[in-house]
Amino acid sequence: MTALLPLSVVLPLVGAALCLVFSRVRALQRTVTLVTLAAGVGMAAMVLARVDAEGPTAVQVGEWAAPVGITLVADLMAALFLLFAMLTILGVAVYAIGQGADGRSVFHPAYLVLAAGVAGSFLAGDLFNLFVCFEMMLIASYVLITIGATEAQVRSGMTYVVINLTASTLFVTVVAFVYAATGTLNLADLSGRFASLPQALQLAIGLSLFVMFGVKAAIFPLFGWLPDSYPNAPTAVTAVFAGLLTKVGVYAIIRTQTVLGLDELGTFILVVAGITMVVGVVGAIAQGEVKRILSFHIISQIGYMIMGLGLFTVAGVAGAIFYVIHQIPGKTVLFLAGGLVEETTGTGELHRLGGLIRSAPVIAVAFLIPALSLGGIPPLAGFVAKLSLVQAGLSAEAWVIVAVALVASILTMVSMTKIWSGVFWGDPDEAPPLPAALGATRLRPPALMTAATLATVGITLAIAVFAGPIFDMATRAAESALDNTAYVEAVMGS
Amino acid sequence: MTDGRPFGGDRSPVLDESVRLVFHTVLVLSVYLLFAGHNAPGGGFSGGLVAGAAIVLRYLAGGRAAGAVPGVGHEVLLGVGMLISTLTGVAALVGGTGFLEAWVFDREVAVLGTVKFTGTLPFDIGVYLVVIGLIAAIVDSLGREADTTEADALDPDGVAGREGTA
Amino acid sequence: MSLALAVCAATLFGCGTYLLLQRTLTRVILGIALLGHGTVLLLQVAGGRAGAPPLMSPDTPGSAVVDPLPHALALTAIVITFGVTAFLLALAYRSWSLTQDDEVRDDLEDRLVARRIDAEIERSQAAAERERSDGRPEGDGS
User: Fold this and answer.
1) In chain B, positions 38-77, which contact chain A (CB-CB < 8 Å)?
2) pLDDT higher than 50, residue A227
3) Which terminus of chain A has a lower count of CB atoms within 10 Å, N or C?
4) Do B80 and A17 touch (CB under 8 A)?
5) What residue numbers bound the domain in which A432 lies?
């Protein structure tokens, strides 16, 4: 077990190094990527099984004791996120290979570094390592988002890089503040020392952490970069970003806010959550292109996760955790399906598409299931997630946010209907770029891409089927996150 | 333009000769820093930066004709460096100690006398290679490649259409 | 804590933020570099007062030594800023060679949405105007 946590981070890095060495042999690169990520999924599953059975586990890297050394910690929340993140990363890797998105030799190394960064962010036990792993993930994402070096990608990539970099600078600033105020960066150590700080200082640190991670998670009003930059990247890249990057930001928000335990921020967080939901979904309705609609949806969904945290109850945080879990594969698969539409018809613009339910029923199914789930239709995972959040909101008597969440949910369904009726029903208003896409002939989406998409749909369905046990785990994860004695013991104890 | 100097200027004999004199000395200094890193100021990162400075110097003097590291692409350099560093950590795991835990080798060797090195050395060598690879990549993409496209823009008949392969 | 370091960090942050808000790409990159230096200084300030070098022998009293952790953090932050700045420069160069321009452009789709809304407003205004002048609804106008 002590080997599993560091290996989850280092193995993708070893894979990335091998991919760099083999940068002239694409087949070897693909093999290395798939083998590494499959091993990553296996290790994540073992970590989850172990943590579920025995409680939080910590590893001190280089045997330097906490709080000085580098600590890797897996508690139930981190382990759950890690498993679903790795599954999604593996699925998208297959899709990218099927699409041929790995045309440039830098794709595989960057993709694996991204995987390492995601794993490291979930497992990091102190603020500075969280920063380093976050940066690892973001630097890989900078490379991936501008990989084609086309004019649109460079332009939007520039915005993306500059905004994220500014947020990262803010991160180091907050790290400096925390260190100056408490003399520690270890999260477990911090949770003990934070309460003795003056109230104003506590609020200042809590707010700056929230704002800084808020940029990465794309909450209102810090989301401007997301719908601008995501749609321009290759589909596989956008899909993995949509499923993971903002969610890692949400994870960091949940982790730091539960460690700091600033219930006073609750109302503020709820207000931000409500506005994020509504603004995101209204933005989605205004758009006329599949990937852009979905990009605005990411923002709206972030609002729900933040809402769960803002309630600061076990039920609320459990709902937020379950929401993140179902969003990681759910959001990704929507982009994968959108990518299949683009791949087979040559466009993602709604007015040039139509009738795909006749010509490509497989894509229609792959889109419909996660779309219904996102809209919160029973018995899919999205319904369970939204229901748990609404219940948590009702029991916390936060009527306004519940009402906002329900309205935003209806609007989500409306905008999903827009994609559905634009792409899959009816006829195109204008001719699509590829003449075969007119709806008369049967379209054949590439087999490997379809298989990867359907496999990811399978994951979302599995979350719905096993919603009971997973939600039970999420509840226990929320309990241990809010009352982190076991976490602190695992890190500081031995 | 034909000798591919950066910014298309004339060759400066003073710079050329100084670089020729200094280049190898700087490389030796970088290796010294790499090995000194365990107990004294230095280490893989600073050693690699010094070696990188040598590469940049040579590029400034010789232009794009002077390759960064002959025969090895910078991706390979980066990859090998990363591999060495990460495997050092994994090797400690396999050896039964904690991840990245340092070990010390301190023994009498025939001829050489007492030889001492620690587990941080291979890690540092990896870092050294990564830094050199990174600087070679920077020189390549911001220097050499830019010079080439610039030369294309100024002299379209000579080497037209080379940009697309970047 | 040294006042000089704190003032330096504040100045760097100020200049960096100013440059970051410009539309010219090179200035933005310079701004990010300045911000990075500011945070590194801030990390040093966070380490507390200056002391002896953190190279300890067993008989050095721990309290005489400067806190080494902020330096390790600062070094890591410097490395990351270094790498990212190199990437940004490459990106800026690519952007310049594509557009021969150093400005950060607006998002095209955003402008299209804005134009569509403007056109719609104009059309509805024109329709209202015509209705008023003709006194009858427009049926075959388009």
Assistant:
1) 73, 75-76
2) yes
3) C
4) yes
5) 4-492
